[in-house]
Amino acid sequence: MSEVIRQRRSARAILLDSTDNVLLIRFEVQRTSGPFTFWATPGGSVEDGETDAEAAQRELIEELHLEVALEGPIHVVASQFEHESAFVDNTDIFFLGKCERSAPRLDALTDSERTAMREIRWWSVADIENAAELIFPEDLASLIKAATSQSS
Fold it and tell me: How far apart are CA 91 and CA 94, in angstroms?
């Protein structure tokens, strides 16, 4: 793994259905220590010249063939981790959107995304709170509760 710390900014979407379940993607990535599996919201790196909101919209189209209105940003998370054989100092910017359960179709633009993105699944807040699997962001259940209490 490279000793260089790479800066990364990501835009991500918390997508809720009509019953406030959230769509997550199961990722399996290779790390130095072996396979690492987790669930996360759709999204990815902000490209040069792109706003966070534009990046979130582009990632939804690329990963899920989905165009929805997004609100926010509603949350920011800073973290450090191994990604593509490099150590990354990462900032995730989260937006909120709504869509029909049947609308998203998992796809990927790059070979590395096709290898890593395994499936999509709708999760309730209770599912997230009781999950044995890793889910990012770690405070997703409380974010959903806060977002849905404001819109009720």
Answer: 10
